Amino acid sequence: MKRPLIFHVFRSSMGLSAALVLGCVGTLFFFLLLKGLPTWGTELFFGDTAPMDAIMGKAPVWEGIWPAFMGTLCLMTVTMGLVLLPGIGCGIFLAEYATPLWKKRVNTAIDLLAGAPSIVMGLFGFTLILFLRRAFFPEANTCLFLAAGCLSLLVTPVLVVNTREALEAVPSSIKLAATSLGLSKNQIIFCLAVPMAVRGIVSGSILAMGRCAEDTAVIMLTGAVANAGLPSSLWAKFEALPFTIYYTMAHYQSQEELNLAFGAALLLLFLATAMVALAKLLEVGHKLFWQGERPSVLQ
Amino acid sequence: MTSSQKTESFFWAKTYVHLAAGLVISSIFLLLVMIFIFAGPALFDQGHRSIFTWQWNPYQGQFGILPMLMGSMILSVSALLLALPLAISLCSLLLTAPRRLSARLIHMVIRFMTAIPTVVYAFAGVLLLTPLVRFSFGGSGLSWLTATFVLVLLILPTMVLVLNSGLKPKLDDLCPQGLAMGLDRLDLLWFFVFPHTKKTFLAAGLLGFGRAVGDTLIPLMLAGNAPQVPMDLGQSLRTLSAHMALVTANEVGGAAYSSLFMAGALLLGISALVSLISRALVTS
User: Fold this and answer.
1) How far is B256 from chain A (nearest CA, A)?
2) What is the dihedral of CA A156, A158, A163, A165, to 10 degrees?
3) Which pLDDT value is given to residue A298?
4) pLDDT above 60: residue A296
5) Measured between beta carbons, which residues in chain A are less than 8 angstroms from residue B111?
6) Rounded to a whole number, what is the distance in Å from the CA of B181 to chain A's nearest CA?
């Protein structure tokens, strides 16, 4: 068979593009590792403050990423507190209760939300505060709670879609058998399907947590600042790892400050990667258990 | 537990599920309504002239955001033009040699790439890529070109995933007969699968474009943020998303805010269009 020249060009470009991407990502990773790993230590987290005092909150940390780290943890906790119940509920609704018409409508809305840029969620929080200031509370200001609210909007699609898919992965033969044994629809959903899908749902939640740890654009507009100390209350400004990286990069004066950003970037990278890996592991296990075959790693 | 108690508990479970769905839907509506309501006055109050012009100069009362719209568009399109061929050839490698070591390595790296936060990409880009660009093109190194390269890395995994899930079933269908006829997997892919999967390519391109338009940190940290239309790849530009971050950070003041809401509404409109079209492509 005679093959056109472009075919041969394409064949050789496959290896080239793979080498290119591997090279870029490898360089990025090892660069961060080489520069970031040496900075890790109590110095990076706590600066000059004694670690125990800093952890107990007795002494403020000025030159370390401890407050930012704690800020990110608080942000993740509050966001998950806000989003878990509605997100999982909406996923169950989509998989089990929605009529075809509603399924289509809700899926479209979720798609819209999933496609919306994260800075638009931040802008949403910003407009909410402006609105509250004009209408009810003149002293309303951007804060941890607002940022968590906007982040929960950002991660809702992740949670909804994963819950829906986890429920849909439960084999229909089980539902059929349960129906023939006389179980009601609600009993099948809440006593069989949901407990069976728990692993997939947990995987979706971990993925959502990873998304909210890494996102910067939302918190930039809703209350992250460079110097706030440990997060003091839901209604106060806060520090967070991604914002610290951005801010340090834009304003650093010395090598020490840049090292701080390196340490924070590596920490954030590890945090995000670990969560995605854990979620993937759970999801693959879930599908392997219910569908009997190993799903493609890429889907 | 008696039977009536059991029905009762399911009543609450059912109510919870419906309430949750209602809450999610209404918050999506609230998001759309708030953004467009705040953007509205920018359209109607001062006439179209002050927002939709080519000059951004807040201290002289010029609040044009067209350069930013243009910046968002050309940056995303150029990133897409680079990323699409790369994604297609990476995906072909994954599909044609699934068991080879190189393909497995690519699998792993692509999965790793989906997990890298965009701020980390931008951070590494500033330190690694800017000096290179500065060396070869002069200037500050913060330019259209720099942001494009890093954006390509950001949108690549999404596009490879979409392509892979669209092309794999078709190739698997053809495989047994095609291989028996003496063609290899790449032949099948090139001559039989590619001509019939224009929709998949389009969907992958659209999703990549959507991610590129919506990203904030990479253009903000790497594109230089000069509010102008760049004439060549070495010049700096400002995107809508970076513009929003800059306006809120500097608190320029009242009139500048209306450009902020307009930029948000434009971004939301573009991304909504992209999601609706790609949804229609995938479901049809």
Assistant:
1) 14
2) 140
3) 44
4) no
5) 276, 280, 297-298
6) 12
* B49: closest CA of chain A, how far (Å): 24
The beta strand positions in chain A, using DSSP E, are none
Q: Is residue B177 part of a domain?
A: yes
Intra-chain end-to-end CA distance of chain B, in Å: 48
Domain ranges of chain A: 66-240
Q: Does B54 touch chain A (CB under 8 A)?
A: no
Enumerate the residues of chain A whose CB falls inside 8 A of the CB of residue B248: 126, 220-221
Residue B237, in any domain of the structure: yes
* pLDDT(B255) > 50: yes
Which residues in chain A have their CB less than 8 angstroms from residue B122's CB?
246, 249
Q: Is residue B46 part of a domain?
A: no
- The reply to whether B2 falls in a domain is no
Residues B188, B174: Cα–Cα separation, whole Å:
7
Any chain A CB within 8 A of the CB of B272? yes
| pTM across the whole model | 0.90
Total Cβ atoms within 10 A of residue B247: 22
> Per 3-state DSSP, what percentage of chain B is helix, strand, and coil (rounded to 5)?
80, 0, 20
- If one counts the domains in chain B, the total is 1
Q: How far is A29 from chain B (nearest CA, A)?
A: 9
Domain at A66-240, CATH from 1.25.40.10, 1.10.3720.10, 3.40.50.300, 2.20.28.120: 1.10.3720.10
> Residue B275 maps to which CATH number?
1.10.3720.10
What pLDDT does residue B65 have?
Answer: 85
The b-or-e profile of A168-191 (16+ CB within 10 A means b, else e) is ebbeeeebeebeeeeeeebbbbbe
Per the structure block, which two tokens stand in for A39?
Answer: 């900075």
What is the pLDDT at residue B7? 57
The H or E element containing residue B151 is: helix B144-180
Q: From the list B16, B124, B161, which residue is nearest A31 (CB)? A: B124
- For the segment A210-269, what is each residue's pLDDT rounded down to a tens digit? 999 999 999 999 988 888 888 888 888 899 999 999 999 988 888 888 988 999 999 999
Rounded distance between C-alpha atoms, residue B59 and residue B79, angstroms: 33
B179 lies in which domain range? 67-283
Per-residue pLDDT, A34: 94
Set of chain A residues whose Cβ sits within 8 Å of the Cβ of B276: 108, 111-112
Confidence of residue B16 (pLDDT cuts 50, 70, 90): very high
| Structure tokens that stand for B166 in this block | 């669209």
Global ipTM: 0.90
